[in-house]
Amino acid sequence: MSSPSSPSPSGTTARKSALLASYGYPSQPGMARAVAAAAAASSDSTGPNSPGPLSGRKGSISTTRSSHRYSQLYSMAAEQDVEVEDDLARAQKRLRELKTKISSQSKKNFVLERDVRYLDSRIALLIQNRMAIAEQREVAEHLEEADSSDGLFPDDRKLQSYGNLFFLLQTEPRHIATLCRLVSLTEIDTLLQTVMFTLYGNQYESREEHLLLTMFQSVLSAQFETATEFGSLLRANTPVSRMMTTYTRRGPGQSYLKTVLSERINSLIEHKELNLEVNPLKVYEQMINQIEENTGSLPPHLPRGVPPETAAANPDVQAIIAPRLSMVMEIANSFLDTILESLDQVPYGIRWICKQIRSLTKRKYPDATDFSICSLIGGFFFLRFINPAIVTPQAYMLVDGLPSKHPRRTLTLIAKLLQNLANKPSYAKEAYMMTLNPFVENNKARINKFLNDLCEVGDFYESLEMDQYMALSKKEINLNITMNELFNTHQLLAQHRDTLAPQEKHHLRMCLNELGAAPPQVPRKENKTIILPLFSRWETPIQDLHSTFLQETNITQADIMYMETKSILVQLIRSIPGIADKRPLDLMKIAETAATTKDAILVRKGIKVKEMLIELEALNVVDDHFTFMTEEVTEELRHLGNLREKVNEEAASLESVYKTIGDHNNYLRSQLDSYKAYLQNVRMQSGGGNSPGQGSGVGVVTVGGKEAKKGKQQVLGPFKFTHHQLEKDGVIAESNVPENRRSNIFFNITSPIPGTFIIALHYKGRDKAILEMDLKLDDLLEKQQDQVQLLDLEYVHLNVNKVLALLTKTFIKR
């Protein structure tokens, strides 16, 4: 990565134009500057709300866009100053570490979720005994643990070529945007893993986030261009819609859902017996079941199997439903209020995507009504983001354990109401929802205002340009990537090379030609993570930001000295406790104090900044009292003080998010363990066998590395669990045992043969079990496939997923 130490003005201007062009923006210098200027005008400053650093002081140097940008650079440096060790620096370090952990854990969860989806379908075949031995081996390989240790790429030359390719992909998002439209639905998840969690995996780093959003803009633009009718936009399950859903599952989206929805959902599910069913047919069925249970028979005028119209016309059903309608709408209103009040908490990226949807819709359909446009925005925000978390809060770790039957149904009704409100409601399939239409009518104006307000965010083009400068000035940019991510991306790019890079001199084509054919995927257990250094042989690295800005802008050496002096003074104040207690600040005294400390670094900085103050005064850039600089340093310190509070608040919020993501990871792993146990049993029983040294399946005993002879298998268990223990762990979802007797209840679980379990419910002091249930592992997995959430043991209802996890944990390694 050798480069000239001071690139020529023409070279840097060309580089800037190329960067903008790669994002899809105008490459002409005038237009590029206009785009950036417009973006700057519509966005909030990333630095403090202080006067322009070059305004109002002696020397009458006018504030320009360039000087403002350069000043931002110093503000950013002050906020992330690694040389300072104060409360802010420590809080920022903690926050950075948290963000890195969340980004890493999010990727692991995405991979696990994809594995679970794959195994869901394969295990279904196993349950139905329709999978060949070869297919069983394929599934077994999918269950192998990936090698989590760091590895070394065997070929240095190839590694450099991959580094060049992935730098190009990261900094020119249009290539990935096009590729995402070309791949099939079966290929998109693997590509999304690389794009969302590796290529742009630092989810809280502005440069990567903004590059990813730039890619989204390109993808959405193409989606709108090829749309044939308004009603089909963003609705179907396509690679684009999958991308949008995956984006909402990144750290910032998860944080928002946890902060905004968790408390509201938990307060609802506390009311386990609150039945708010409003579907007349279901209410009718529940009513006659209750009558039959109470009286032993049904009157002739209440037959079973009536059509929906008959159920809806029944006066008793109407009387049951009437108060429920009011309560459902009241609860839905409370959810809606919470969401509407959270506007400022919605992650920037999600709001920016909403903004693009509105802008592209207006461009494609200039006659579209505001209501129609809002329905598209709502389709993304509610259908892809909010509603899945409301319907399945346990999957988003917003609640501990599975909500009971009635609250689950209420949450589904609330999600339907919000979706009907955000979209044009259709009652063709569920006519009973018409009775809740007052909620939609009363809130139309509110939701449309909210959806439009979501779009009112500034653009990031100028800050992205500055981020790119910062990236080019870094000595190293690295990517943590697995071997298979490298090879899979390479293979997809090569497959679509002629569409992505039709010209021979195209940089992407040159990279692919240099790499040759894509290597095959390595086995899962050999899929190491490597550190891939990114660089470009076409971009000139910026070795000296000062020189670059001097050449590209009309900033002078005096301007740079002024800003550097201010920056060093802020560093000194942050490093020496109590030095800024007296106001107004005496900048020269601060410099002299630093120059006489016992810290050699502070002494050097103190002497340097004292000399710079004297030189600035001699150049007539500042007055002899340093009035304007004093004001700006004071304002910068105030900003940093406020920043510390915000950093601590954000860190506290992200601690909760990290725990949630970690809990979800544990749940997914327990799911995979269940599948692993079941597969091992099936393979052994069907002759697939286990190799020596492998752990046996659930309930399977090995002797000397070989399966025990039939008829001599050892019974595993019983293993004892108290009612309190299973309730605390979420295995017992609902209990009919009186509170005062639960301490006397315990369960014994035994595995007499592989894949079979007996759960016995006991009461202390009695030898015989009150109740016994014979469970088959494939029956449990089939229930899970059919999304049956609860297992009825008469006295208690068990959570199917938690029971599977408990059986796996108890028997898998025994």
Shape: globular
β content, as a range? 5-15%
Portion of residues in helices? 55-70%
Low-confidence stretches: 1-70, 686-711
Number of strands: 11
Mean of pLDDT:
77
Largest sheet: 4 strands, antiparallel
Distance between the termini: 55 Å
Question: In terms of structural class, how would the helical and strand content be classed?
Answer: alpha+beta
Strand order of the largest sheet: 5-7-8-9
| Number of separate helices | 30
| Rg estimate, integer Å | 32 Å
InterPro entries: RasGAP_C, RasGAP_CS, RasGAP_dom, Rho_GTPase_activation_prot
GO molecular function, one term: GTPase activator activity
Organism: Linnemannia gamsii
Coiled coil: 81-108
Write up what this structure looks like.
Helix content is 60%, strand content 7%. The radius of gyration is 32 Å and the shape is globular. It is built from 30 helices and 11 strands. With 814 residues, it is of the alpha+beta class. The strands form 4 sheets. A 4-stranded antiparallel sheet has the order 5-7-8-9. The longest helix is centred in the C-terminal third of the chain and has 59 residues, at 627-685. Keywords: Coiled coil. It holds the Pfam family RasGAP. Residues 33-68 are annotated as: Disordered. InterPro entries: RasGAP_C, RasGAP_CS, RasGAP_dom, Rho_GTPase_activation_prot.
Keywords:
814 residues, alpha+beta, three-stranded antiparallel sheet, 30 helices, globular, disordered N terminus, RasGAP_C, Glyceraldehyde-3-phosphate dehydrogenase 1, GTPase activator activity
